[in-house]
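Supplementary Text 2. Reproducibility record for the structural model of the 180-residue chain.

All settings were left at their defaults, and a single model was retained for analysis rather than an ensemble. We include the record here because the model underlies the residue-level annotations in Supplementary Table 4.
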Amino acid sequence: MATPEEILRTQLRAVPRGASGWKQFEDVAIAILIHLFVPQLSNPFIQPRSHSGIDRRDAIFPNRNHGDSNHWGRLLRELSARMILVEFKNYDSEEVGKDEVNQTRNYLTRPMGRLALIVSTKEPNEAAHVKRNTVYAEDEKVILFLNVEHLNEMLYMKERGEDPADLIMDLVERFYIQWE
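Retained model, structure tokens:
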């Protein structure tokens, strides 16, 4: 019998890359993140819009951890990460670039906090990395890049009884180390 993690990995592999599979990628990736991080985080708001309707975010996971007993509590304290913003990019030939980083930056309002995840099927290009460093320098906002391999690794971690949020903390720490 397949484990929940094996089922999710199979679903992720089956997603077509590009515009035709954007909704399927988003649905599977949200299911993975829920499996990995809820109840440490609360169930996400899916496709929430700002009051004016101009901004539509892909998913927002409320972070109600107020102590340092886990990684999410630490991120709440360090980055005011009250809400974990997640943007999904199911690209085939396109690259995640500075425009995607800017869009995500603009979604990180003061009440949301200063942590966001861009989950994509493609690696971000150099311009995305440079823009991400600029965003941190100007606003102290941390935007992490996660790819399909990261999702799979966190599923394996969960399967082994480890905390998948360790990988998130590793990515935050690697970002701090490379930032200039």
